Amino acid sequence: MKIYSSKTRINSKELWWFLLNNNRGESNNGLMYAKSLSSTYKNIFIQIKGSNPVAEQLSGLNLLIQYIQKKVTCIYVHGRGNIIFLIISKFLGLKSVLVINDYMRYYDSDKKFTNKIKSFYHRSIHDVSLKLCEKFIFISETTFKKSPYSKNLQNRSSKDHEIIFPLPSYPPEEIKKENLPIIKETIDIIIITGHTINKNYQFTLEILEKVSKLNKKNDQSIFKFHIFGLNTKKISFDSKRNEAFNFYKINTPMNHLINIHQKCEFFISLSNDEGFGIPLLDSILLGSFPIVSNIKSYNEIFNDKKSFINKSLLIDMYDSETIISKKIYNFIKINSNEARINKQKMTISYKDIYKEIISETKGKLSNLIK
After folding, report:
1. H/E element holding 350?
2. In 143, 170, 243, 310, which residue has its Cα 20 to 30 A from 29's Cα atom?
3. DSSP readout, 210-270?
């Protein structure tokens, strides 16, 4: 068991954060939430052993006596708590907070048996956590409204839950102006996706191949697609041999991801559904022009961050592949120079925008936890 602790701060109170030790959005967002509170609380990070449900539920039990003695607040980052800790917290009246990231497992239509079992486990622990936790964080209004949780919370005080957007993935000190070359031979596009059904990755790759063909047929500038989050063993041979596609390892180090993300003028996501969309938020703040599916969570981000968005393209997923690919191709071709200029401007403003977002999030978290 690894325990990571921040330095002791003004307030001697401890927050125990239960989270998986990986680079995925939920874990990283939990770390960023904790960072926003590091001047007030002492943060203890307890690694969930997520290899199987039993190991997950046993994580942290060697610290149970400390937990009872210190009477700390536990925050469960992945929408499901440690049942033993939750029962004790309920019995002793200790604070517990559940972060609800999405609702996908409730509507998972994946027919693969192992995925069905996984979804059943997640749903079951979600439901128990809802009944035993004291307070709740929803990462978007979309997640709150679509989640089965919202029905159970209707009769509870509004002080029991808060909608708090995830924080940007990249700290300001990692954003460097020298990562933005003014003259480039390529137009770079980033795609951060995954293999879950809602990510729609196979359709996305098909669209990108059509866009790439239009580019090769008509232009001198080369489109380069930087694709993160996919296991290349699960994608088609045609996609892997396409010279316009650069596939990166699923657990790409954060500093390498930042370097690639910074140089990309455009961000593409054709998801059918999302709880939020952290890569979209990151792309907007880095000045990349977003090309995304017209879904509620993405529109929520657009409405909240509209002052930072210069240009964007919303894709109607009911259009044909030919229409979608032509729209994307034309948008990239017409706006590449303007996107490059926009990235320069947003890089200069990034630190101030980041501080403003951190301050707002800290206020919301503090009010909910206190």
Report:
1. helix 321-369
2. 310
3. HHHHHHHHH-SSEEEEEEES--GGGS-HHHHH-TTEEE--TT--HHHHHHHHHH-SEEEE-
Q: How far apart are CA 108 and CA 111, in angstroms?
A: 9
DSSP 327: H
Cα angle value 111/113/118 (rounded, 5°): 100
H or E stretch at 76: strand 73-76
pLDDT, one tens digit per residue, over 35-57 is 999 999 999 999 887 667 888 88
Distance CA 35, CA 347 (A): 22
Rounded-to-integer distance, Cα 235 and Cα 225, Å? 15
Residue 203 is encoded by which pair of tokens?
């359709």
Whole-model pTM?
Answer: 0.90
pLDDT digits (tens, 9 = 90+) for 59-111: 889 999 999 999 999 999 988 888 999 999 999 999 999 999 877 666 666 66
**In the structure, what pLDDT confidence band is assigned to residue 23 with cuts at 50, 70 and 90?**
low
